[in-house]
Amino acid sequence: MPLDAEERRRYARHLLLPQLDEGAYEKIKAASVLVVGAGGLGSAALLYLAAAGVGRLGIVDDDAVELSNLQRQVLHTTADIGRGKTESAAEKLVALNPHVEVVQHAVRFTAANATALVDAYDVVVTGVDNFPTRYLINAACVLHGKALSEGAVLGFAGFAMTIKGGETACYRCVFPETPEPQPAPGVFGPTPGLVGLVQACEAIKVVTGIGRPLYNRILQIDVLSMTFDELDVRREPTCTVCGHMA
Questions:
Q1: Nearest 10 degrees: CA dihedral of 38, 42, 47, 52?
Q2: Which is it for strands 217-222 and 227-232: parallel, antiparallel or unpaired?
Q3: Domain 31-245 class?
Q4: Using CA atoms, how far apart are residues 189 and 169, in angstroms rounded to an integer?
Q5: pLDDT per position in the chain (246 positions), as tens?
Q6: CA 116, CA 171: separation in Å to the nearest integer?
């Protein structure tokens, strides 16, 4: 669907970029992105995906906003404490860009709903803080051939990679063993913001076909030293998720 006059004004600084001409913007406007988790990673990713004009944004989260979230989950405010995160997030995103359709999925991402959720969107963004859900999202995206923008943080460090379901190295290829549950770690507030912005960039690149997504690559970020390192990865023929697709 072509951009209208108001949208051309809103996205004018993007449209000045040759890679984001009107043809690319029609792809953004027609795209749908599911963000699983409206916390630190999801806050940054959702804000920039909405600002960019992604046509439909889905938010999966069954938690409520807590005071301890606010040092990093910048989509929420003190007044939102006790509100559901999907409700709080949707309110901010629609206020930012009313051209974006925001769909609230106030549920936990589980094996029972994974197929329905993933099937309804073009790209999935991981914004969760537990390993079982992370592996489940990866498996669902691989099984259904969906692009997945993966990101994680720990303290002052983070990483991002992008997965093209069934074609590139998946999360299980790189991390074959599920770690044991650990107590909630400390997180430096800006770290998930930085990684979430990378994830938003990756989702837009996948939707439009511009640039070089982080396929078969991991971007490692250390905020204390402010270094960005890249690690090449590959699909593993023995991977229990995608090995049979090689």
A1: -130
A2: antiparallel
A3: alpha beta
A4: 29
A5: 789 999 999 999 999 999 999 999 999 999 999 999 999 999 999 999 999 999 999 999 999 999 999 999 999 999 999 999 999 999 999 999 999 999 999 999 999 999 999 999 999 999 998 999 999 999 999 999 999 999 999 999 999 999 998 899 999 999 998 888 778 789 999 999 999 999 999 999 999 999 999 999 999 999 999 999 999 999 999 999 998 875
A6: 21
Please state the three-class secondary structure of 19-50 as a single string.
HHCHHHHHHHHHCEEEEECCCHHHHHHHHHHH
Backbone angles phi, psi at 194, to 5 degrees: -65, -45
DSSP state, 211?
S
Q: pTM of the full predicted structure?
A: 0.96
Domain boundary assignment for the chain:
31-245
Determine the Cα–Cα distance for residues 191 and 174; give it in Å rounded to an integer. Answer: 22
Sorted by sequence, the CB contacts under 8 Å of residue 78 that are 6+ apart come out as: 67, 70
How far apart CA 133 and CA 138 sit, in angstroms, is 9
Give dist(CA 131, CA 129) in Å, integer. Answer: 7
With beta carbons less than 8 A apart as the criterion, state whether 128 and 37 touch: yes
